[in-house]
């Protein structure tokens, strides 16, 4: 790969990832999704942990966006090394989240925690995990679709949660990653939604992306893993942040929900891969305009046997002959009696046919033998008509035995 091409590829990955990370943090700061300039006592430590999950997720999604932007500049036939280098560049660009969160964390006070160090470590871990996420986005189209579907859904849930608090005189609520924390919901309803929101979101995204991959005719393994990408980022973000330590399990409930979201996403894509579809009736394809027509077989003339059979079939039943039907009656056959002599019928006189004079071959001269006698060419064999007369006399004598 040329230096100019590689520099452009790595520059796009790094620059777009840094821009995506900064944009997400700016939007989160402006809407109140992430608030780092406040003091929290020991009872509110889980609110700080929820902020860490958002920071790790911002870093990973920024790396994914950088990888997706750099994919358009990948040269044809690029191997795993080029993709890995691009993923690293996207992760370096996503690391811009580290200083952008450490600086405002200097004004935060959390009992028993060093906010600057902890939030910097979480942002760096998120950027490092973004290497694998960016590589998946560079390699698989299904991963890109799932990243986009889950990312958009998470932001929609966050906007719905903070929208009531944007009104004048309202207090901005603490919003958790992937949880509907709206003021119009009761505490019990919010706790239930925190347990089921992320798994349900992952399942729906897995089914939708898996179904799209199936319609495109991708392999079964690719379809089955189509629902893993986006939920895996949620799982990794909560793993980095931790389950929290409060007695009300404010952070522990979404933590365990995030642990199951990756499995729910894979379950949805597996269902899309294995469920059978009813066979659709496809209309017959129109013939190609450039395709020559198929040769047609000429009509064969009717054979004489077929014509005779058709004629015989039109006769009345009493006029049908045995040769027409193939059924022979016993009365049509002559009776056989081997002991009754048959009466000889008088011979039918035949008209004399004048025979033409056939020239006879000249006689063969007999050569004398050594003893002076002439040897016949046929020897002492009997003539054929003499043998026939003897056979007839034997047959008459045998037939006469039965009449005696």
If you had to describe this structure to a student in words, what would you say it looks like?
The protein is mostly helical and 404 residues long. Helices cover 56% and strands 1% of the residues. Helix 2 packs parallel to helix 5, helix 3 runs antiparallel to helix 5 and helix 5 packs across helix 6. The termini are far apart.
Give the percentage of residues in beta strands: under 5%
Mean pLDDT: 79
The best one-word shape is elongated
Order of helices and strands: HEHHHEHHHHHHHHH
Unreliable segments (pLDDT under 50, ≥5 consecutive)? 368-382
**Alpha-beta classification:** mainly alpha
Would you count the extended β strands for me?
A: 2
- Alpha carbon gap, first and last residue: 122 Å
- Number of DSSP helical runs: 13
Indicate the radius of gyration in whole angstroms: 52 Å
Major sheet: arrangement of strands: 1-2
Q: What composes the largest sheet?
A: 2 strands, parallel
Percent helix among the residues? Answer: 55-70%
């Amino acid at each position: 790969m040329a230096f100019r091409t590689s520099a452009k590829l790595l520059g796009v990955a790094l620059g777009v990832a840094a821009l995506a990370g900064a944009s997400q943090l700016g939007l989160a700061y402006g809407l109140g999704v992430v608030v780092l300039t406040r003091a929290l006592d020991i009872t509110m430590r889980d609110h700080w942990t929820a902020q860490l999950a958002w920071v790790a997720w911002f870093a990973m999604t920024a790396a994914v966006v950088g990888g997706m932007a750099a994919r358009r500049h990948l040269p044809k036939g690029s191997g795993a090394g080029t993709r890995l280098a691009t993923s690293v560049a996207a992760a370096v660009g996503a690391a811009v989240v580290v200083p952008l969160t450490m600086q405002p964390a200097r004004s935060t006070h959390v009992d028993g925690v060093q906010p600057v160090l902890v939030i910097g470590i979480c942002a760096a871990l998120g950027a490092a995990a973004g290497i694998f996420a960016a590589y998946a986005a560079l390699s698989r189209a299904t991963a890109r679709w799932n990243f986009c579907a889950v990312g958009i859904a998470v932001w929609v849930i966050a906007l719905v949660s903070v929208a009531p608090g944007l009104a004048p005189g309202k207090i901005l609520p603490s919003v958790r990653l992937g949880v509907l924390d709206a003021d119009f919901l009761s505490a019990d309803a919010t706790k239930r939604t925190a347990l089921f929101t992320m798994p349900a979101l992952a399942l729906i995204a897995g089914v939708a992306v898996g179904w799209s991959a199936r319609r495109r005719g991708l392999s079964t393994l690719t379809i089955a893993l189509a629902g893993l990408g986006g939920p895996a980022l949620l799982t990794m973000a909560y793993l980095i942040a931790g389950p929290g330590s409060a007695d009300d399990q404010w952070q522990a409930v979404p933590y365990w929900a995030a642990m199951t979201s990756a499995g729910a996403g894979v379950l949805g894509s597996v269902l899309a891969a294995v469920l059978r579809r009813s066979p659709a009736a496809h209309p017959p394809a129109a013939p190609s305009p450039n395709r020559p027509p198929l040769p047609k077989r000429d009509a064969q003339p009717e054979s004489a046997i077929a014509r005779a059979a058709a004629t015989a079939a039109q006769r009345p039943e009493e006029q049908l002959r045995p040769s027409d039907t193939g059924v022979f009656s016993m009365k049509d056959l002559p009776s056989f009696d081997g002991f009754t002599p048959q009466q000889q019928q008088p011979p039918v006189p035949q008209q004399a046919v004048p025979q033409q004079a056939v020239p006879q071959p000249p006689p063969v001269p007999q050569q004398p033998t050594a003893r002076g006698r002439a040897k016949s060419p046929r020897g002492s064999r009997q003539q054929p008509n003499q043998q026939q007369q003897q056979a007839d006399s034997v047959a008459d004598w045998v037939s006469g035995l039965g009449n005696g």
